[in-house]
Design brief:
- The complex is a heterotrimer of chains A (287), B (317) and C (344).
- Chain A is built from eight helices and 15 strands.
- By secondary structure, chain A is of the alpha/beta class.
- In chain A, helix 6 runs parallel beside helix 7.
- By secondary structure, chain B is an alpha/beta fold.
- Chain B starts with a helix and ends in a 27-residue tail after the last helix.
- The longest helix of chain C has 19 residues.
- Chain C is globular.
- Classes of the chains: A alpha/beta (287), B alpha/beta (317), C alpha+beta (344).
- Chains in contact: A-C, B-C.
- At the B-C interface, strand 2 and helix 8 of B face helix 8, helix 9, strand 11, strand 12 and helix 11 of C.
Chain lengths: 287, 317, 344
Amino acid sequence: MGKEDRNIMHNPYLPYPVRISDLRIETEDKNLRTFKFEFLNPGDEEKFAYLPGQFAELSVPGQGEIPIGIASSPTEKGYVMFTVNRVGQVSSYMHNMKVGDVMGIRGPLGHPYPLEKLEGKNILIIAGGFAVTTLRSTIVWMLQPENRSKYGNIDFVYGARMPGLLCFKDDWTEWQKRSDINVHVTIDREAPGWTGKVGFVPTVTKEVCPPPANTAAIICGPPVMIKFTQPVLEEAGYSHDDIIMSLENRMKCGLGICGRCNVGPEYVCKDGPVFTLTQLNQLPKEY
Amino acid sequence: MSLPEINTKIQETAKRLLKEGKAEVVIGYRQGTAPMTVAPHFARTEDDCNQLVWSNFAKINLATYLPKFPGKVALIAKGCDARSAVGQVVESQIARENLYIVGVACNGMVDVELIQAKEPRPVFTAEEDMATIKLSGEGWSTSLTKDDVLRRACKTCVCRTPKDIADELIGAETPALSPDDYADLKALAAKSPEEKMAYFKGLVKDCLRCYACRNACPLCYCPVCFVDETRPQWLGKSQDEMDTFTFHILRAFHCSGRCTSCGSCEAVCPMDIKLREFNRILEEEVQRDWQYVPGLNWEQKPPLTTYRPDDEAEFIK
Amino acid sequence: MAEYIVKENALRNFFQALTEGGQRTLLAPAKVGDKLQMVECEADKITLDFANTHQSPKSAFFPQTQKLMAFHKDTSKSDPFVYKPLGLDNMKPTVLFGIRPCDAKGLVVADKVFQNNRFTDPYWKTAYESSIKIGLACTAPGPNCFCTGVGGSPFSETGLDALAYVKDGGLAIKAITADAEEFLKGLSGVEAAEVAGEMAELKKAVEAKMPGPIDMAKVASGEILDIFNQPHWKDTADRCLNCGTCTFVCPTCHCFDIQDEQNEKGGVRMRNWDTCMSWIYTVHGTGHNPRPTKTERMRQRFMHKLKYIPMKQDGDCGCIGCGRCVTLCPVNIDIREVAKQMNG
């Protein structure tokens, strides 16, 4: 018993209304589209205060919701950005939406990468294909002048099957020109016109990975990439506390209530999606 | 045969089949952990076999476990279980050579809901033989005649003794019953469409959409049930009356001419919905139009899964 | 706290008074068809003689289908395609009479999920916290009851505002919260009395008839993966139908699916009870399923109840011993047996 003022209670199921302010086709197979959203109501952008590694539920009225990692960095003001892969009902519907259409976003959800804990360390960021989104957010955030000095060397390994499937080309070509980040972009096999690295992500990681002392790795990618990259890092001597991963599972509420995304006692949505390998080693592999 | 005699026979048979390599597992029942329950039992060793029992409280049709079951399996089968297994062979869900049917002459299973309607006091122990159910609770005990609390489906069973389809039979032949005359359906058919609709909606009004009926059904082996399809999503997932109704109607149509009237769906339904009403209507039509009773022979395909270019029926053209 | 009695001939007035002149919806055990359920009902339909309701009372606060928000598509009006919440401003508070102590404890388990360390579910919170829960202690527990096996009691006060038991055809009631004392003392038919002593003795006597504690010490101290990888799961799953009956009747099962439905004018977003027994519950958009077979799905339910929830809720078991799943499981998968197997 006990009566609350019900009107002032925050409703975490209710999306912030947003308008699609920009969208672009991200990859040449046209399966990925990147959306920028601006908030319809003043003040909502501030309420949606997030950090790299968090995600949101993209909410299309009448269609449903999908959990997607936030690709923009909180340092990029005036919009939030998401890259959406066409897989199910909601994402397919979104691929037919236009600039100006109204939908919703709900979040931020989950925990960010442990940015404070990582201060003072060298950072190795490893991404495969479409899973680069929250790592783009992380890099943009870390490269900000007010943040860059908190970290040592930053290495970025990024791979895709072919050049046309690499996301955020403008960003990483820009980063390649900088001296404060080492960018190692690779594709699986030779392709016409490609002058960069060729080889799978685990192989490139083995070549370029910095010594494990005082270095942490953040990995995001398809299961097969993770499966073969993890041993590379272990062999290189990275401790399990310093291997950080972001999990995906089917989700609905994003609040640790609806149940389906649990991995052992942890909900990927509420307690993750970011976990260290030490944590994951104690949990069932139900993801 | 008495219940203990049947049990001994089942256990001996199971051990022999495992030993002879006719089966790697024998699926039957074992005693349940709560009053008026039995558990489906997968016997793989001699010790396992010693737990096999026959019981009046069997709820589900054991053939449900057969589709895609790996290896050789023997089924301790009631008539309806055996018929369903035959149906699954006909529908290519299990290979005939991997299936060994141990038929048991059955005189019906009891309906726990009916028992509780007759005896609402909490039952702490239930004892049984082939003709009576003895119940007791705190400071009371009573005895019910099994025939008075029989499952509805069992009262019109056409295959109490699966002698023609079993590979071997346990027990003496049970006297046959007169089959369902569907008399009540004639009365229903005479009603107006509105009245019929109200009747059917009333039947399923308590449905939780838990799909226990589907999961317990030996016919429901589809890898993806239409209610679970998401692209496109055929059916809403709420308790919307039409969505619930559509589920039951479509499932019934999907089972028409295949249902062996085992009553498993009704027995497992946590809300005790009379699910077989849907099936009976279609069962009657299939019998009338095609003189077909499913699960009684190894060759004949269900009429609604059969296509013939020279089919006489108008609707096919 | 104050203690009261309501005499048999005053029961009807008492039940009517519980609605506070219609300001509250009264939910109480009454027959719906041939099932006893916790439902909105008239005072004279309430029964005091029962083991437990067929379904758990969770739907009072977490209906099987609940509309969360709605939107419209009329571009001539303000806010087209913007979801607005439903049902929060005008939710009528309830009074639950006759909830069993096990179920009240189950609702506390669910409450800790709906109001977890990071988020508050406003739909649950509004309904749950505005309700008054008057429990009815069990003097004749059912055959499959085992609250005492999992840290409960037929006279448990957890999650209740007041606890009653049947006395001489009427009720003896003990207020547990100050709010309940305030609520009860002015109600029609309620007389001050001393009942705590008798209640304590009854509690002892009923508990003595019930099962002892299920030993789950090793489940509590064991590593997740050790229990997860035990060999018994496959054997039990052999007979599991993945039907979900257990999850639908369980008072602590809280999982749901969120679905949108729309027509040409607008649409709603709703939640519906869901079940971890279903393969689609966890399947990814890519088709990958982290729990691909019934073994993983069945294991999840027991790991959740008996290992994960205790880890997250200070050791409190996620099963409260109501016995509904034991009674209704079509293939007799008995959580008491599974708990024993998990404990080695």
